[in-house]
Amino acid sequence: MVTVDKGTHGGAATRTEKHLEFTQMALESCVKMDWALKSSGATIDTQRTSPTYDCKDSPLCRILRFFWTASPPDTILQPNVLPGNCWAFKGHQGQVVIRLPARVYLTAITVQHITKEASPSGTIISAPKDIAVFGVDVDREEETLLGMFTYNVEKDPVQTFPLKNMLLPRAFSHVKLLVKSNWGNPWYTCIYRVKVHGKMENQASTKGPDK
């Protein structure tokens, strides 16, 4: 007969639950601020961003080209998430670099797409799938990998992913979103909305321990 020390295991479970609750609260507090908002001063570093998709590369678009309007990459910095109002790049691999309005200790990133129900075609195979996020030091031309994740089209259209920079004392002025695959569209990948979360460098330093 195996005797279980309920007190010990119960305490461990309680500590785990409290840790998860604290982590969730910390993440929720950081995602309130979006540093990748155009109206707040965020812009696109076009020199480090993939070219916008040209409709004539797709046989279907050649037929419907009079109905196609290419949206610029800063579309992803605006809250108007409507069917077709996205930035597209050619193929299933591409990147966008966002210039933040301040240096930020990055904690999480949010990616948003439309739902299948909202899509005129009934599919969202152009949605990004496997994504890597980097903090970019443009002065040193250095990139720091902050996280890799998968955007799941079967889940909520707004998905937030924590970044491992939460424990690193380094702020960035640029964020790179590298899309490695999409959900099956052979011609292009669409990004509707990207949000960047974290604490501004000066705010974080004033709340830190006394020097």
Fold topology:
Blueprint: H1 6-30, E1 43-44, H2 59-64, E2 87-90, E3 94-112, E4 130-137, E5 142-150, E6 158-162, E7 172-179, E8 188-191, E9 193-200, H3 201-206
What's the oligomerization state?
Answer: single chain
**Shape descriptor:** globular
Let me know the number of strands.
9
Terminal Cα span: 56 Å
Secondary structure category: alpha+beta
- Give Rg in angstroms: 20 Å
Chain-averaged pLDDT: 83
Helix content: 10-25%
Query: What's the helix count?
Result: 3
The biggest beta sheet reads:
7 strands, antiparallel
What is the string of SSEs from the N terminus onward? HEHEEEEEEEEH
Characterise this structure.
The chain has 211 residues and is an alpha+beta fold. It is 18% helix and 32% strand. The strands form 2 sheets. Strands 1, 3, 4, 5, 6, 7 and 9 form a 7-stranded antiparallel sheet that branches. It has a two-stranded antiparallel sheet with strand order 2-8. The N and C termini lie far apart (56 Å).
In short:
This protein is an alpha+beta fold. It is built from three helices and nine strands. Mean pLDDT is 83; it is low at 1-9.
Keywords:
two-stranded antiparallel ribbon, alpha+beta, 18% helix, 3 helices, 7-stranded antiparallel β-sheet, 211 residues
